[in-house]
Amino acid sequence: MNITTLGKQIAQMRRKKGITQEELANHVGVSTQAVSKWENGGAPDVELLPRIADFFSVSIDALFGRSILDYEDPRAAIVKKLITTPDDEKFKLAFDYCWDVNRSLMPGSVAKYFSADNDSVDALTQSMKPNEQRFSSIRQNNGFTMVGIGNRQQYFLLVPEPKDTDLAYFNGIDYPAFFACLGDKDVFQACVLAYKRHHKNAFTAELLVKELGITLEKAKEVLKILVKYEILGTGTVEIDGKMQEIYHCYPNTAFAALLIFAEEIIDKTRNGCYCANTRTIPYFQ
Protein backbone atom coordinates (compact mmCIF):
# COMPACT_ATOMS: atom_id res chain seq x y z
CA MET A 1 0.00 0.00 0.00
CA ASN A 2 1.70 3.23 -1.17
CA ILE A 3 1.17 6.60 -2.82
CA THR A 4 1.70 5.20 -6.31
CA THR A 5 -1.05 2.64 -5.72
CA LEU A 6 -3.38 5.42 -4.59
CA GLY A 7 -2.89 7.38 -7.81
CA LYS A 8 -3.37 4.31 -9.99
CA GLN A 9 -6.56 3.35 -8.13
CA ILE A 10 -8.03 6.82 -8.56
CA ALA A 11 -7.24 6.75 -12.29
CA GLN A 12 -8.72 3.27 -12.69
CA MET A 13 -11.90 4.14 -10.79
CA ARG A 14 -12.33 7.36 -12.75
CA ARG A 15 -12.05 5.60 -16.11
CA LYS A 16 -14.36 2.83 -14.98
CA LYS A 17 -16.94 5.41 -13.94
CA GLY A 18 -16.54 7.08 -17.34
CA ILE A 19 -15.78 10.58 -16.10
CA THR A 20 -13.07 13.09 -16.94
CA GLN A 21 -10.36 14.44 -14.66
CA GLU A 22 -12.20 17.75 -14.75
CA GLU A 23 -15.45 16.21 -13.49
CA LEU A 24 -13.65 14.49 -10.61
CA ALA A 25 -11.82 17.73 -9.81
CA ASN A 26 -15.09 19.70 -9.69
CA HIS A 27 -16.64 17.21 -7.29
CA VAL A 28 -13.67 17.12 -4.94
CA GLY A 29 -13.04 20.85 -5.18
CA VAL A 30 -9.56 20.90 -6.70
CA SER A 31 -8.05 21.77 -10.04
CA THR A 32 -7.87 19.42 -13.00
CA GLN A 33 -4.10 19.70 -12.74
CA ALA A 34 -4.27 18.35 -9.19
CA VAL A 35 -6.15 15.23 -10.34
CA SER A 36 -3.65 14.74 -13.14
CA LYS A 37 -0.82 15.00 -10.61
CA TRP A 38 -2.42 12.31 -8.41
CA GLU A 39 -2.75 9.93 -11.31
CA ASN A 40 0.88 10.43 -12.25
CA GLY A 41 2.39 9.55 -8.89
CA GLY A 42 1.27 12.35 -6.63
CA ALA A 43 -1.17 12.13 -3.73
CA PRO A 44 -4.23 14.10 -2.60
CA ASP A 45 -4.28 15.75 0.80
CA VAL A 46 -5.47 13.41 3.56
CA GLU A 47 -8.62 15.46 4.21
CA LEU A 48 -9.73 14.85 0.60
CA LEU A 49 -9.68 11.05 0.85
CA PRO A 50 -13.19 10.67 2.38
CA ARG A 51 -14.65 12.91 -0.34
CA ILE A 52 -12.92 10.93 -3.09
CA ALA A 53 -13.99 7.59 -1.56
CA ASP A 54 -17.62 8.78 -1.26
CA PHE A 55 -17.60 9.91 -4.89
CA PHE A 56 -16.62 6.42 -6.04
CA SER A 57 -18.81 4.70 -3.38
CA VAL A 58 -15.85 2.79 -1.98
CA SER A 59 -13.93 2.67 1.28
CA ILE A 60 -10.74 4.66 1.80
CA ASP A 61 -8.95 1.31 1.97
CA ALA A 62 -10.15 0.58 -1.57
CA LEU A 63 -8.40 3.74 -2.79
CA PHE A 64 -5.17 2.08 -1.77
CA GLY A 65 -6.14 -1.20 -3.43
CA ARG A 66 -6.85 -2.82 -0.11
CA SER A 67 -9.81 -5.18 0.33
CA ILE A 68 -11.61 -6.16 3.53
CA LEU A 69 -10.20 -9.61 2.79
CA ASP A 70 -6.79 -8.21 3.76
CA TYR A 71 -7.74 -7.62 7.36
CA GLU A 72 -11.17 -8.98 8.28
CA ASP A 73 -13.20 -12.15 7.97
CA PRO A 74 -15.58 -11.28 5.08
CA ARG A 75 -18.49 -13.10 6.77
CA ALA A 76 -18.02 -10.97 9.88
CA ALA A 77 -17.84 -7.87 7.71
CA ILE A 78 -21.12 -8.76 5.95
CA VAL A 79 -22.89 -9.44 9.25
CA LYS A 80 -21.61 -6.18 10.69
CA LYS A 81 -22.73 -4.27 7.60
CA LEU A 82 -26.23 -5.77 7.66
CA ILE A 83 -26.64 -5.13 11.39
CA THR A 84 -25.80 -1.47 10.96
CA THR A 85 -27.99 -1.03 7.87
CA PRO A 86 -31.45 0.59 8.43
CA ASP A 87 -34.24 -1.98 8.69
CA ASP A 88 -35.98 -0.79 5.53
CA GLU A 89 -32.79 -1.35 3.52
CA LYS A 90 -31.59 -4.67 5.00
CA PHE A 91 -33.36 -7.04 2.62
CA LYS A 92 -32.28 -5.13 -0.48
CA LEU A 93 -28.65 -5.20 0.65
CA ALA A 94 -28.91 -8.87 1.64
CA PHE A 95 -30.27 -9.75 -1.81
CA ASP A 96 -27.39 -7.84 -3.42
CA TYR A 97 -25.01 -10.06 -1.45
CA CYS A 98 -26.97 -13.17 -2.45
CA TRP A 99 -26.77 -12.19 -6.09
CA ASP A 100 -22.99 -11.89 -5.84
CA VAL A 101 -22.79 -15.23 -4.01
CA ASN A 102 -24.72 -16.83 -6.87
CA ARG A 103 -22.47 -15.29 -9.53
CA SER A 104 -19.36 -16.36 -7.64
CA LEU A 105 -20.44 -20.01 -7.98
CA MET A 106 -20.06 -19.85 -11.76
CA PRO A 107 -17.38 -22.31 -12.95
CA GLY A 108 -13.92 -20.91 -13.65
CA SER A 109 -12.57 -17.48 -12.87
CA VAL A 110 -15.13 -15.14 -11.33
CA ALA A 111 -13.08 -11.96 -10.90
CA LYS A 112 -14.68 -10.32 -13.93
CA TYR A 113 -18.18 -10.74 -12.53
CA PHE A 114 -17.44 -8.59 -9.52
CA SER A 115 -15.97 -5.79 -11.61
CA ALA A 116 -18.99 -5.66 -13.92
CA ASP A 117 -21.10 -2.89 -12.39
CA ASN A 118 -23.68 -3.24 -15.14
CA ASP A 119 -24.52 -6.69 -13.78
CA SER A 120 -25.53 -5.46 -10.33
CA VAL A 121 -29.11 -6.07 -9.19
CA ASP A 122 -30.03 -2.40 -9.67
CA ALA A 123 -28.45 -2.18 -13.12
CA LEU A 124 -30.17 -5.36 -14.33
CA THR A 125 -33.63 -4.48 -13.02
CA GLN A 126 -33.41 -0.95 -14.40
CA SER A 127 -32.67 -2.38 -17.84
CA MET A 128 -35.75 -4.62 -17.73
CA LYS A 129 -39.36 -3.91 -18.62
CA PRO A 130 -41.84 -3.40 -15.71
CA ASN A 131 -42.96 -7.04 -15.60
CA GLU A 132 -39.85 -8.67 -17.03
CA GLN A 133 -38.24 -11.50 -15.10
CA ARG A 134 -34.94 -13.35 -15.45
CA PHE A 135 -33.59 -16.42 -13.73
CA SER A 136 -30.17 -17.68 -12.76
CA SER A 137 -29.24 -21.23 -11.82
CA ILE A 138 -25.91 -22.83 -10.99
CA ARG A 139 -26.22 -26.63 -11.00
CA GLN A 140 -23.30 -28.67 -9.78
CA ASN A 141 -22.82 -32.08 -8.15
CA ASN A 142 -22.38 -30.43 -4.76
CA GLY A 143 -25.59 -28.41 -4.90
CA PHE A 144 -27.66 -25.95 -6.90
CA THR A 145 -29.03 -22.44 -6.82
CA MET A 146 -32.22 -20.84 -8.14
CA VAL A 147 -32.43 -17.09 -8.36
CA GLY A 148 -35.18 -14.83 -9.62
CA ILE A 149 -34.20 -11.30 -10.55
CA GLY A 150 -36.41 -8.62 -12.06
CA ASN A 151 -39.20 -6.19 -11.40
CA ARG A 152 -41.85 -8.85 -10.78
CA GLN A 153 -40.22 -11.03 -8.12
CA GLN A 154 -36.78 -11.51 -6.59
CA TYR A 155 -35.72 -14.60 -4.66
CA PHE A 156 -32.63 -16.63 -3.83
CA LEU A 157 -32.39 -20.35 -3.08
CA LEU A 158 -29.16 -22.21 -2.38
CA VAL A 159 -29.31 -25.96 -1.74
CA PRO A 160 -26.11 -27.79 -0.76
CA GLU A 161 -26.23 -31.42 -1.87
CA PRO A 162 -27.84 -33.48 0.94
CA LYS A 163 -26.12 -36.59 2.24
CA ASP A 164 -29.32 -38.61 1.81
CA THR A 165 -31.67 -37.33 -0.89
CA ASP A 166 -34.46 -39.75 0.05
CA LEU A 167 -34.40 -38.45 3.61
CA ALA A 168 -34.11 -34.84 2.47
CA TYR A 169 -36.88 -34.81 -0.13
CA PHE A 170 -39.26 -37.64 0.67
CA ASN A 171 -38.98 -39.05 4.21
CA GLY A 172 -42.46 -40.59 4.15
CA ILE A 173 -44.22 -37.36 3.15
CA ASP A 174 -47.50 -37.93 1.31
CA TYR A 175 -47.04 -35.32 -1.43
CA PRO A 176 -49.89 -36.60 -3.64
CA ALA A 177 -52.41 -36.15 -0.82
CA PHE A 178 -51.20 -32.61 -0.09
CA PHE A 179 -51.21 -31.53 -3.73
CA ALA A 180 -54.63 -33.13 -4.23
CA CYS A 181 -55.98 -30.96 -1.40
CA LEU A 182 -54.25 -27.83 -2.69
CA GLY A 183 -55.55 -28.66 -6.15
CA ASP A 184 -59.09 -28.08 -4.87
CA LYS A 185 -59.86 -24.53 -6.04
CA ASP A 186 -61.74 -23.69 -2.84
CA VAL A 187 -58.88 -24.90 -0.65
CA PHE A 188 -56.35 -22.88 -2.63
CA GLN A 189 -58.47 -19.72 -2.57
CA ALA A 190 -59.04 -20.16 1.17
CA CYS A 191 -55.24 -20.30 1.66
CA VAL A 192 -54.78 -17.08 -0.28
CA LEU A 193 -57.62 -15.44 1.63
CA ALA A 194 -56.10 -16.46 4.96
CA TYR A 195 -52.68 -15.06 4.00
CA LYS A 196 -54.26 -11.76 3.00
CA ARG A 197 -55.58 -11.28 6.53
CA HIS A 198 -53.62 -10.17 9.55
CA HIS A 199 -52.73 -13.26 11.58
CA LYS A 200 -54.33 -11.77 14.70
CA ASN A 201 -57.72 -11.35 13.03
CA ALA A 202 -59.81 -14.45 13.72
CA PHE A 203 -62.72 -15.52 11.53
CA THR A 204 -65.44 -18.14 11.28
CA ALA A 205 -66.54 -20.45 8.48
CA GLU A 206 -69.00 -17.77 7.43
CA LEU A 207 -66.13 -15.71 6.02
CA LEU A 208 -65.40 -18.42 3.45
CA VAL A 209 -69.09 -18.68 2.61
CA LYS A 210 -69.20 -14.93 1.98
CA GLU A 211 -65.84 -14.44 0.21
CA LEU A 212 -65.62 -17.67 -1.81
CA GLY A 213 -69.31 -18.17 -2.53
CA ILE A 214 -69.36 -21.75 -1.20
CA THR A 215 -71.75 -23.57 1.08
CA LEU A 216 -71.22 -23.73 4.83
CA GLU A 217 -70.68 -27.47 4.55
CA LYS A 218 -67.94 -26.96 1.95
CA ALA A 219 -66.38 -24.19 4.05
CA LYS A 220 -66.09 -26.51 7.05
CA GLU A 221 -64.51 -29.18 4.84
CA VAL A 222 -61.96 -26.70 3.54
CA LEU A 223 -61.16 -25.42 7.04
CA LYS A 224 -60.62 -28.96 8.28
CA ILE A 225 -57.97 -29.47 5.58
CA LEU A 226 -56.20 -26.20 6.40
CA VAL A 227 -56.14 -27.06 10.09
CA LYS A 228 -54.72 -30.50 9.27
CA TYR A 229 -51.71 -28.92 7.54
CA GLU A 230 -51.46 -26.26 10.28
CA ILE A 231 -52.09 -23.46 7.83
CA LEU A 232 -54.86 -22.43 10.20
CA GLY A 233 -55.24 -22.70 13.93
CA THR A 234 -58.59 -23.17 15.60
CA GLY A 235 -60.31 -22.37 18.87
CA THR A 236 -63.70 -21.55 20.36
CA VAL A 237 -65.17 -18.30 21.63
CA GLU A 238 -68.52 -17.37 23.12
CA ILE A 239 -70.51 -14.91 21.01
CA ASP A 240 -73.97 -13.81 22.16
CA GLY A 241 -74.11 -16.73 24.58
CA LYS A 242 -73.24 -19.26 21.90
CA MET A 243 -69.90 -21.06 21.48
CA GLN A 244 -68.51 -20.66 17.98
CA GLU A 245 -65.45 -22.16 16.35
CA ILE A 246 -63.01 -19.56 15.10
CA TYR A 247 -59.89 -19.76 12.96
CA HIS A 248 -56.73 -17.74 12.50
CA CYS A 249 -53.84 -18.05 10.07
CA TYR A 250 -50.39 -19.34 11.03
CA PRO A 251 -48.33 -17.49 8.37
CA ASN A 252 -45.73 -19.84 6.93
CA THR A 253 -43.32 -18.40 4.38
CA ALA A 254 -43.16 -21.86 2.79
CA PHE A 255 -46.56 -21.21 1.17
CA ALA A 256 -45.33 -18.01 -0.50
CA ALA A 257 -42.18 -19.86 -1.58
CA LEU A 258 -44.35 -22.69 -2.96
CA LEU A 259 -46.16 -20.19 -5.19
CA ILE A 260 -42.86 -18.76 -6.44
CA PHE A 261 -41.48 -22.12 -7.49
CA ALA A 262 -44.82 -23.43 -8.78
CA GLU A 263 -44.94 -20.41 -11.07
CA GLU A 264 -41.47 -21.33 -12.36
CA ILE A 265 -42.92 -24.71 -13.40
CA ILE A 266 -46.25 -23.46 -14.76
CA ASP A 267 -44.98 -20.28 -16.47
CA LYS A 268 -41.23 -20.84 -16.66
CA THR A 269 -38.95 -17.82 -16.90
CA ARG A 270 -36.91 -18.41 -20.05
CA ASN A 271 -34.60 -15.40 -20.04
CA GLY A 272 -31.55 -16.42 -18.02
CA CYS A 273 -28.26 -14.89 -16.97
CA TYR A 274 -25.34 -16.46 -15.08
CA CYS A 275 -26.48 -20.02 -15.72
CA ALA A 276 -24.23 -23.06 -15.59
CA ASN A 277 -24.88 -26.78 -15.51
CA THR A 278 -21.97 -29.08 -14.75
CA ARG A 279 -24.12 -31.55 -12.80
CA THR A 280 -23.62 -35.17 -13.80
CA ILE A 281 -25.66 -36.94 -11.10
CA PRO A 282 -29.45 -37.16 -10.66
CA TYR A 283 -31.13 -34.95 -8.07
CA PHE A 284 -32.80 -37.89 -6.37
CA GLN A 285 -30.71 -41.02 -5.75
What level of helicity do the residues show? 40-55%
Mean pLDDT: 88
How much of the polypeptide forms β-strand, as a percent range?
5-15%
Domain module tally? 3
| Apparent shape | elongated
Alpha plus pi helix count: 15
First-last Cα distance: 52 Å
Number of strands: 7
Structural class: alpha+beta
Q: Give a short account of the largest sheet.
A: 5 strands, mixed
Task: Tell me the Rg in angstroms.
Answer: 27 Å
The helix/strand order is HHHHHHHHHEEEEHHHHHEEHE
Helices and strands in order:
Elements: H1 3-17, H2 21-28, H3 32-39, H4 49-56, H5 60-63, H6 74-83, H7 87-104, H8 111-114, H9 121-126, E1 133-136, E2 138-140, E3 143-150, E4 155-160, H10 165-169, H11 175-182, H12 185-196, H13 205-212, H14 216-228, E5 232-239, E6 242-249, H15 253-266, E7 276-277
Parallel strand pairs: 2-7
Antiparallel strand pairs: 1-3, 2-3, 3-4, 5-6
Helix pairs in contact: 2-3, 12-14, 13-14
